[in-house]
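Page 42, continued from yesterday. The earlier attempt failed because a stray header line got pasted into the input along with the sequence. Redoing it now with the clean sequence only.
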Amino acid sequence: MSNINEKTSKKVRLIYSWVFAAFTVVVGALFIWQVLDVYLGGAASGQTSPFTYEIVSSRVGGVLAAPFWIWIASIAVGFIVWEVFPVKEKLAPITDARYVLKRLNKRMPSTAPEGEEASFNYVKSQQKYLRIVHWLLFAIVAVYLVYVIVYVCVPSNFPNLDKTGEMLNAAKYLLPMAAVVYAAACIYVIMFNISAKNQLPHVKKLTAKVKTPQSVAVNKFTYIVTHKYFILGVRIAVACLGVAFVIAGCLNGSVIEVFNKAIRICTECIGLG
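This time it went through. C-alpha cells are written below.
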C-alpha cells in the first residue's frame, strides 16, 4: 500500500470514529431523555411505577426506534470501513519477560552447555521452585472449592427462607477464604514475574549456543488446521452460521418475543430507572 493510501485510510477511519462516537452520545442522550421524561411524568392511576410495559414499548418503538437502528447499522458500516480502508498495524516489540521466557524455554538444552553450568543449574532450580509454588497454589484453590461445595451441600447452613440473610451469612464464611486464595494467586504472579526476569538473561545465554534445526517435521493435520486459509474459512463459516440463526430468529418472530421479555424484565423485575 502506498503512503498516500495509508494516509487516506487513516483519515477515513478517524472521521468514521468521530462520527460514530458523536452519534453514540446522541443516542445515549435520547435514551436518558426518554427515561427522565417517563419518570418525571409519574405513574398512571392504579400503577405503582411509571415504567410500565406499554409506556416503555411505545417509547422504544417510537422516538428511539429510528436512531437505535441507525446506530446498529453504523456498527456494520464500521466493519466495512475497516475492511475497505485497511491500515498496516505496527506491532510493538514484545518485552514481556514471561512471554519471551516461554518462547525461549522451547529451545532450552537438556544438558548444560560447556561453561554455562551455573546458568543451567540456576534456571533449573528456579523452574523447580516455581513448580512447587504452582502446586501449592493449586492445593489452596482445591481446598477452597471443596470447602464451598461442602458448605453449600449442608442444609443446616440454610435454615430459613430469608435469602438475603443466608447469603450474607454464607459470605461471612466464604469470602475470607476467597480473599486468601486471591492473595495467594497475586503472590504467585508477582513471584513468577520476578523469577522470569531473573531467568531471562541466563536462558538467553543457554539458547544462544543451541543450533536451530534447518527444518522441522510438521504433522500434516497440524499444518492444515493452523493454516491461515483454514482459520479464515472457519471464521467465515461461523459468521455465516450466526447470520443464518439471526435471520431464522427474525423470520419466526423470536425477536419480538425476546424484546417483550426484555421490557418486562426491566419494568417488572429489575426496575428501570
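Notes: The mean pLDDT is 81.
Reminder to self: strip header lines before submitting.
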